[in-house]
Amino acid sequence: ALTARLGADPGAVARIQARLTPVRRQLRRLDRLTWETGQVNGRENFQWLISSSDFASDLTAYEQRLTAFLQEAAQRPPAADGRVRLGFAGIPPILTDLWPYLEELGAAVVYHEFPRQFSMPFASTDLVEQYLRYTYPYDIGGRLADLQGAVATRRLDGLVHYTQSFCFRQMFDQFLRDHLDVPLLTIEGDRPTRLDSRTRMRLEAFVDVLRP
After folding, report:
1. CA 206, CA 187: separation in Å to the nearest integer?
2. What does pTM read for this prediction?
3. What is the pLDDT of residue 81?
């Protein structure tokens, strides 16, 4: 009924979904190489997952580059234990030196909430179910369940909640603090730029508090 209302051809929709399935499977593997073994670092994870929103405007080329990257990443040694494991909640950060700075501090970003959602990390053959599990456009309840699962599964030591100036998603900050059983630091940005000294100090203090 929905496809008819939208004027879509169910057969064509199924073919496109089938075409995207192996790419999404590879993205799930990339994500596991981030949080399970550390062979993919946080910045790489972020860049690949966020670009999966439109596959960098060229699905075939994106898939080829992703395949080559995964082959190279699989040859890397697993990351050393003992790093502070962080996740990012909220809209995708636009602070350009964020990931290298956290790595300097001995932290690893092993979860990016919205970029991961953009990759549609759900192994489902039902397109409706796939989009119902996509938390980005829906209310905070679905996001909270996704975040709680990530905290437990990925063994997160802390979450950084990135908000953007004047974005309505800022209103969820206190809700996340009240409902997530993990230390949470909120940082804010309003344009692509490098970390300012205040934010660097706050991140350093946060990582130090979480360090085992």
Report:
1. 11
2. 0.91
3. 87
Q: How many residues does the chain have?
A: 212
Report whether 184 contacts 114 (CB < 8 A): no
Which residue do the tokens 């344009």 mark?
Answer: 191
Q: Report the distance separating Cα 130 and Cα 159, nearest Å.
A: 26
**Which of 183, 30, 7 is closest to 118 using CA atoms?**
30
Residue-wise pLDDT tens digits, 64-82: 999 999 999 999 999 988 9
Domains in the chain, CATH or no CATH each: 2-210 (3.40.50.11900)
CB 107 within 8 A of CB 84: yes
Q: Which amino acid is at 93?
A: P
Phi, psi of 16 (to 5 degrees): -65, -40
DSSP 36-97: TS-SS-HHHHHHHHHGGGTGGG-HHHHHHHHHHHHHHHTTSPPPPS--EEEEEEESPP-BTT
